[in-house]
Specification:
With 438 residues, the chain is mostly helical. It is built from 20 helices and no strands. One of its GO terms (cellular component) is plasma membrane.
């Protein structure tokens, strides 16, 4: 399979890198399409209020996901690359660390729910969703296959899991089951995924029961991962706090409508990650060999992010009222909010590219401060705008927060050049310069 040539990048190198991520991309696109159809069907079946209630529980658990995962995933891959002979010890240690973290999150979630509950969502629903933090421990198997560059196995598990999940939800709709059935169904999505990982790993002579826990390795992993735990909590707040605040300020009906906006707007946010994973090895090679080429490739990457996100934002802005035709009429008033919220994706794309640059240059702490800044902006603006404008206020707050986070680097002298490069991409200046040169 050939991919289109991208200016500034070697085509042969791109083909090689794409093979490592192409299957994952295909699987995610297929899963996305299925999930979108099912989410529309579920929204049509459930009222706005019921959708808001169930989304509140899911959002609440997402806020604690970084604590449950311990920020270990990339370090598991790194350890497996460096010490493949210690596979069972690495996987066993990280697995049990995640199990204990997931169990430890349950009382923490209960305490936080007492302090700042999701109004309208019973704690019983939140407790059911809490099992997600435990079963996600099986995601260490995903890290193993990443280290082996065998994305096709993960893609197979995810696609099959998506199909099973879709079938269950459609059956529940057909049988006209109550809301609690959908709560269990959403929680079981992660259980089925864990079962798929388990069965896939145990092929070809591998055995999950051979995994062993090592206390010294656990200390080492936690030493490296604790900054990512804090950063992950900030990301969770930054990305999801708006949904919880809409529910608590404007009620479950507004939260249900806003949930459809967030689902449609954020569905594409995996794309920059896949593309950057494909292109960044070539960018790092340029950094090693030719700094001028390295800078050009960074600019080309920012340009590419805009070429992908800007048309999508424009199309959805002018077709949002048509998109909401597939929902029931009670959701139709959310269309203008989608037209605003979708523009936050432009800054998600730029921010994802810039984050890779900061990591490559060793400025990991800056990614933390930038995300924290975005989270603070988001919370403050939500508190101001949601009481006055409802979910439209949340969309505006999200857009401003994402833009503020992406261009936070402009305030840091040693990396503010990157902010200028992103502005050149955003306002199509570099595109016009390329056209003029031709």
């Amino acid at each position: 399979m050939r991919i289109p040539s991208i200016p500034g990048f070697d085509q042969e190198a791109l083909e090689k890198y794409f093979k490592n991520t192409g299957m994952s991309f295909v699987g995610k696109v297929g899963s996305l399409f299925i999930k979108m159809l099912v989410s529309i069907a579920v929204a049509r079946y459930l009222s706005k209020a019921n959708l808001g209630i169930i989304t509140g529980g899911i959002t609440y658990i997402y806020l604690f996901s970084a604590l449950a995962t311990l920020g270990l995933d990339q370090f598991i891959v790194k350890e497996l690359h460096e010490f493949p002979q210690n596979r069972d010890r690495i996987l066993g240690t990280s697995f049990w660390m995640k199990i204990f973290a997931g169990l430890g999150c349950i009382p923490v979630i209960w305490l936080m729910y007492k302090i700042y509950p999701a109004h309208g969502t019973p704690y019983g629903y939140v407790l059911i969703f809490s099992i997600i933090g435990v079963v996600q421990a099986f995601n260490v198997i995903d890290s193993y296959f990443q280290s082996e560059v065998k994305s096709k196995y993960i893609m197979q598990v995810q696609v099959i899991g998506t199909l099973v999940s879709a079938a269950i939800k459609l059956v529940l709709i057909y049988l006209k089951m109550p809301l609690i059935a959908f709560v269990y169904a959403y929680a079981l999505d992660f259980v089925f995924l864990a079962i798929g990982y388990f069965l896939t790993y145990n092929r070809a002579g591998r055995n999950i029961f051979s995994w062993v826990y090592n206390g010294e390795l656990a200390k080492k992993l936690l030493h490296y991962s604790w900054p990512l735990i804090i950063s992950g909590i900030m990301v969770s707040l930054y990305m999801k706090i708006d949904q919880l605040m809409v529910q608590n300020i404007s009620g479950v009906n507004e939260a249900g409508a806003y949930a459809t906006v967030a689902t449609l707007s954020e569905a594409w946010n995996f794309i920059p990650t896949v593309i950057i994973t494909t292109l960044f090895p070539a960018i790092l090679n340029a950094r090693r060999d030719d700094m001028n080429r390295y800078k050009k490739r960074i600019q080309n990457l920012y340009d590419l992010m805009i070429y992908l996100s800007l048309p999508a934002a424009l199309i959805i802005t002018f077709t949002s009222h048509l998109i909401y035709k597939v929902y029931t009429p009670e959701y139709a008033y959310a269309a203008p909010t989608l037209s605003v919220h979708i523009w936050s994706g432009v800054f998600v794309f730029l921010g994802a590219a810039n984050s890779q640059y900061l990591i490559a240059e060793g400025y990991v702490k800056l990614t933390f401060w930038r995300t924290g800044f975005g989270a603070i902006v988001n919370i403050v603006l939500n508190l101001i705008l949601i009481p006055k404008m409802g979910m439209m206020g949340a969309a505006i707050a999200t857009l401003i927060a994402y833009a503020s986070s992406a261009f936070f680097v402009l305030l840091i002298p040693k990396v503010n050049r990157q902010g200028v490069m992103m502005l050149r991409a955003l306002f199509l200046i570099s595109l016009f310069q390329k056209i003029i040169k031709r």
